[in-house]
Amino acid sequence: GDAAIAVVGEKVLVMAAAGDVMFGNGSATAHNRAVRIFSEDNGVTWTKQDISETLFLGDDATIQNGYTAFFGSGRLAVDENYNGTGKPRIYGALLLKKASGTGNYVIYTDDFGLTWHILGGSQNPIANQDEPKVEILPRGQILLSIRRGGGRHAVSVGDGVKNLKGDPLAIYDHTEGTLPDLSAAHAGQGIAAFLPDLGNRRHLLQII
Question: Fewer CB within 10 Å: N-end or C-end of the chain?
Answer without folding.
Answer: N
